[in-house]
Amino acid sequence: MATPAASEPGAGQTKTPLYTPLNQDKKEIRLLRVAPYGSGDDDVLSVCECTMFKASLTEPLPRYNAFSYEWGYTQDISVGYKADNIVVVNGHRVQVTKNLVALLTRYRNIAQAIPDSDIARPPVWIDALCIDQSNIEERNSQVALMGTIYSRAQSTLSWLGESEDDSDYAMDVISRTGLQILKNMSAKKDEMDWIDVENQPELWRTEHPRRLNRFWTSLGAFMRRTYWTRAWIVQEVMLQSTVVILCGKLICHYMQLEAIHLWLRNCRGRPCPPGVDAGLWELLSTRVGWYQMGLNNLQKRVPLGSKRQETGGDPERESYTMWKTWIISTVSKQATEPRDKLYSVLGLVGSDLLRPDYSASVERVFADFAARSICMEGGLDILNHAGHFELPELAEEDRKRTPPATNLFVPTWAPNWDQISKTYSFTWFFNQNDKAGDGWEQIYPVLGEQPWLLDSSNNTLVTPGIVADTISLTRTCDIGDGSWLSFCLDYIRSRAGQPYPTGVPPLQALALLLTRGHDFSRKPLDPPFPDAETLLRGVLPGFFLTLVTENSKDPKEELRQAQETFGLSNPAGVIKNFIGTAAVAIHQTQTGGEPSAEKSKFATPDARRSTGLDVPDSMDFNHSARGGMSLYVAFVTSRGYLGWGRKGLQKGDQVCILPTCRMPLILRHVGGLRYINLGASRVPGLMHGEAVSCVRGRTARVETFHIV
């Protein structure tokens, strides 16, 4: 939490301190009542006056509403405290940010317009004013109570800011459309039954083919506001069933926005309804369109128990595991105060797990969390999220929306959650079926103790690990400029007719690399001999569409040339160069025949607008692949393995498997026994415990690493 400017009494004002100590045993908090403006005052320019009083969470307390809003980034706050950004609290003139002045002013106007409403009657809780931000001890205790504060509130009032980018229009249509969808859901009708093209032109008509119309564009601007990227928003809306959105002078309900989001997700893959613009529907029914509208920023409200995992009856470990799950699932959320990457979701698991400590350094907080993770889980899986890596270049719009990373010296075995939040989400890279570290006990039996040691005196993790291979080449790839196609061709040439280390054809290995362990039917593909029909139906069409460059004048011809280049212009070529004879032999054993020639037909450029099992939604797939390539580099190892890793890898870095780690890690030798962790990697053929067999076959070795 950022620290606001100090308050001071003005001439003739009270000398009583603004803040007096809170009784922690009674779990006291402060609440505010915002006074209405006078009859002769300007409803916008007059200074907001508030009365602040104490209340106890352990005793009957008045109903109150809790505000959710954006503090602003550090540099914004430093210029935000101006002489005219003033509110008066208990007679004290308090300098606050411009956004908080706007919040209080608009709230005062709404409360005066509807004084008997549930929004206006109760007092309010606003962290910037109700917590003495200059008192670290009070901040620690009050942040520990924030989960209770939001859950006990009558409602959460989410302030999105002033009207801009056609937000008044968006708010109006959100209210009406969300209500229609909720009524349709309540009646348990088909998702499409509420659509009325003639009476809803603002939803279904567009003047520009394959582009969003006015409403969906304004909704996109609304959802791309930086409010939605805040780390604190998670518990602020998750702990409250009644969330009211305030934007400018208008109000709508969070559930109305949620209903629109849920409806769009349920429409994925559905055919375009009659009368709806086909190009517009293509965007509304795919992830690409959702991302354009920023709907990926919406915090989905799920039952809190849905993230709870069984841990053998240990309540502390269960709460910790849930805490870690929330941290990882909200990894892309932003916090001005880096410690809040961890503290902002504590209220979702209970305040007894940990007491926030803003006096501890950020590095200490992050390292302690990683050490606790290793102890609680009895494993090194937290290292998959750790590591030193280069931050990718952000687009100009993203730079404006994302606070800069703080320069921290976090040990590379501990995740730097602040840096991670500036780069990517783990969903592109990780797969819940990954088990790279399986089988360790077969080659490294340790009786009664774990095979690793945390040396807290010098922040070093000492652990054995398998050196599976060494990186020999790295390449930054992009679908649009042809560099991905060039990487594929160069790799196949380098194999000189030899298969991938697991025995599959090099082209299939490239497809497995691109699909990151998945096919489009959501069946595992990493085992040694994938099902031939699945490869043809799911992987091949989507893989080939990534080889068509974005600026191609004739994508159909370019696709045909790619098929010929890779020797896949006929079924025999597909079997030889993509499926592999071993997979065909297994398929014949299981089904009594080879893959049908019909299934070996390739996706044409027309399939870019198709959905279904046979031809995956290529718009979604290409968007996902290109997004991942902007964040990771492709690499090749000395033995011919392919992989994805974080930016900054170089020749000579080692691909290592540590005990209980789901992903291979990239380690770099920095002198003596010391190594730094460069982060997790994805290497087809090393994701399911195969490294243990490599040690037995003497193609890999076990070493001891001192990770600093």
Could you please describe the fold and organization of this structure?
This protein has 25 helices and 18 strands. The protein is an alpha+beta fold. The chain folds into 4 domains: 18-153, no CATH class; 167-220 and 254-297; 355-478 and 630-708, no CATH class; 479-622, no CATH class. The radius of gyration is 28 Å and the shape is globular. The relative contact order is 0.09.
Average pLDDT across residues? 83
The best one-word shape is globular
* Helix/strand structural class: alpha+beta
Beta-strand percent range? 5-15%
Tell me the Rg in angstroms.
28 Å
Level of helix content? 25-40%
Question: How many individual β-strands?
Answer: 18
Number of domains: 4
Quote the distance from N terminus to C terminus: 29 Å
Total count of helical runs of at least 4 residues: 25
Uncertain parts: 73-81, 519-529, 597-616
Q: What characterizes the major β-sheet?
A: 8 strands, mixed
Output the keywords:
708 residues, 5-stranded mixed beta sheet, 15% strand
How are the SSEs placed, and which strands pair?
Elements: E1 7-9, E2 28-34, E3 48-56, E4 65-68, H1 74-80, E5 86-89, E6 92-95, H2 98-113, E7 124-125, H3 127-130, H4 136-152, E8 155-161, H5 167-186, H6 201-204, H7 214-223, H8 233-238, E9 243-247, E10 250-253, H9 254-266, H10 278-284, H11 287-292, H12 315-329, H13 340-343, H14 362-377, H15 396-401, H16 417-421, H17 440-443, E11 453-455, E12 460-475, H18 483-495, H19 506-515, H20 532-545, H21 555-565, H22 571-579, H23 581-591, H24 618-629, E13 632-637, E14 642-646, E15 654-657, E16 665-671, E17 674-682, H25 690-696, E18 701-707
